[in-house]
């Protein structure tokens, strides 16, 4: 009898554990995790490169409903979308959901990037970033951006009959990054940065299989080279600050080095500086270059929108003396141009979606998101929801005439909530200055179709070749072929 009672007591916790697991399994979202490690990663990547990722996800919604499970980039994942999903992702306090990225992004950008930090460390690093990226600080860099953009157009656009926009915009935005983040002028060193950086970002959305000759492997090696170059720059800037040959506001690195804690020591570790400089590099390079490229594509297809943007920018140009730089006050007048940019971001967001990590079990829409699983959110399915944006396929900048007309957590090209992208204002300034000079100096016509793919950022056909001519009231433009 005693033996039977002991066996009974032993079996009770096992029975309860199995029952709990069964109930948890029943509450998981529908769907399949697919093959180990690979899961549905290759299918999503193929759909993105074919620009059918939204349809790929819509098929999942039709099959499984608005919440489903799958496996992406080596981890079990729950896919969610819509206003409630965005609010869940962007309003958490860091105790339930972390912004931890996929294994490939984490390894390439570093474990001390702002994406990977605990709530306390995230706040500390974000505050350091905002000292440089907040509007009050960026005001002093408007003239420097203006100078870089004028120089770029003079070297790469003027006198040309045809240019390819996307690679030129990437060249421009990286030069601005090198100037404002590192105080690094043109030359061999900047060229080495460009080469390493471009290889690094190619493997950020990839299956984390570190075999030789894979894109992921090449990106990891490039990441290490870039990190070593940034460490060298940090050491040089530290010496310059000690010798008072550089100011704390000279660039992002000197800004980081000048922030001290209560003990008088540097607020950020060197690794935190390196990894978060890389985050700003990626954000500032890709978002702005893609946005400017698709703005030029849009204006070539929408004559009435182009005319309104041109009118706004010409009025500002007429108020400037010859050679005078744009100012913060000039940017504030570019209201319609920025509404056009916002509508471009709605229809073609540079960031298709992103990942979060569940720190504990989460209930969402009647399903369980288990602790340790990824959460995959996407922007286009909210941006193109006709219950939020009527006639979503129609380009209408007036949607953003009043910000209150757009419901919260429905327009998320920069994320939202307390963890909204800290580089949003940087991208806005960069975009407006570039558009001012391109629109007032040149006319253009598309020389390729309107299709694009994602890798993972949007890439227009052939990089968007355009025929260009200096702008005059009676100018015409045609495509030139070799």
TrEMBL record:
CDD domains, per database record: CYP90-like
Localized where? Membrane
PROSITE patterns this protein is in?
A: CYTOCHROME_P450 (PS00086)
Which stretch is the leader sequence? 1-21
PANTHER family for this protein: CYTOCHROME P450 (PTHR24286:SF190), CYTOCHROME P450 26 (PTHR24286)
- GO-annotated molecular function: heme binding; iron ion binding; monooxygenase activity; oxidoreductase activity, acting on paired donors, with incorporation or reduction of molecular oxygen
The name this protein goes by in its record: Cytochrome P450 716B1
Q: Which GO terms describe its biological process?
A: sterol metabolic process
Membrane topology, record value = Single-pass membrane protein
């Amino acid at each position: 009898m005693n033996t039977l009672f002991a066996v009974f007591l032993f079996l009770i916790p096992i029975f309860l554990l199995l029952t709990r697991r069964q109930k948890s399994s029943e509450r998981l979202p529908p769907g399949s995790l697919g093959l180990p490690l690979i899961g549905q990663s290759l299918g999503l990547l193929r759909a993105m490169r074919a620009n059918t990722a939204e349809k790929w996800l819509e098929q999942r919604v039709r099959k499984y409903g608005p919440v489903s499970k799958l496996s992406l980039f080596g981890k079990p994942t729950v896919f969610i979308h819509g206003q409630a999903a965005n609010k869940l992702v962007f309003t958490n306090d860091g105790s339930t959901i972390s912004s931890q990225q996929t294994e490939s992004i984490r390894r390439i950008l570093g474990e001390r990037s702002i994406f990977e930090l605990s709530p306390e460390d995230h706040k500390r690093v974000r505050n350091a970033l905002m000292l440089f990226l907040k509007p009050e600080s960026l005001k002093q860099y408007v003239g420097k951006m203006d100078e870089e953009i004028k120089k770029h157009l003079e070297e790469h656009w003027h006198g040309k009959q045809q240019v390819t926009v996307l690679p030129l915009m990437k060249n421009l935005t990286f030069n601005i990054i090198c100037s404002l983040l590192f105080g690094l002028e043109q030359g061999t060193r900047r060229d080495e940065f460009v080469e390493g950086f471009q290889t690094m970002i190619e493997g950020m959305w990839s299956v984390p299989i570190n075999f030789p000759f894979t894109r992921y492997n090449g990106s990891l090696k490039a990441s290490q080279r870039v990190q070593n170059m940034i460490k060298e720059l940090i050491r040089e800037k530290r010496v310059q600050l000690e010798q008072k040959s550089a100011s704390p506001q000279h660039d992002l690195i000197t800004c980081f080095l000048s922030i001290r804690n209560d003990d008088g020591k540097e607020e950020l570790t060197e690794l935190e500086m390196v990894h978060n400089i890389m985050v700003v590099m990626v954000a500032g390079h890709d978002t702005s270059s893609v946005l400017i490229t698709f703005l030029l594509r849009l204006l070539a297809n929408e004559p009435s929108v182009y005319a309104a943007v041109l009118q706004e920018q010409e009025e500002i140009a007429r108020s400037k003396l010859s050679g005078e730089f744009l100012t913060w006050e000039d940017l504030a007048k570019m209201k319609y141009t920025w509404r056009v940019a916002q509508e471009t971001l709605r229809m073609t967001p540079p960031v298709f979606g992103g990942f979060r990590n569940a720190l504990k079990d989460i209930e969402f829409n009647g399903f369980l998101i288990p602790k340790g699983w990824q959460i995959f959110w996407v922007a286009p399915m909210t941006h193109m929801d006709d219950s939020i944006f009527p006639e979503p396929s129609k380009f209408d900048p007036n949607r953003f005439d009043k910000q209150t007309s757009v419901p919260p957590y429905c327009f998320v090209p920069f994320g939202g909530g307390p963890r909204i992208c800290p580089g949003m204002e940087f991208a806005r300034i960069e975009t407006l200055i570039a558009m001012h000079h391109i629109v007032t100096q040149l006319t253009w016509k598309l020389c390729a179709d309107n299709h694009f793919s994602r890798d993972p950022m949007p890439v227009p056909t052939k990089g968007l070749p355009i025929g260009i001519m200096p702008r005059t009231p009676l100018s015409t433009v045609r495509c030139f072929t070799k």
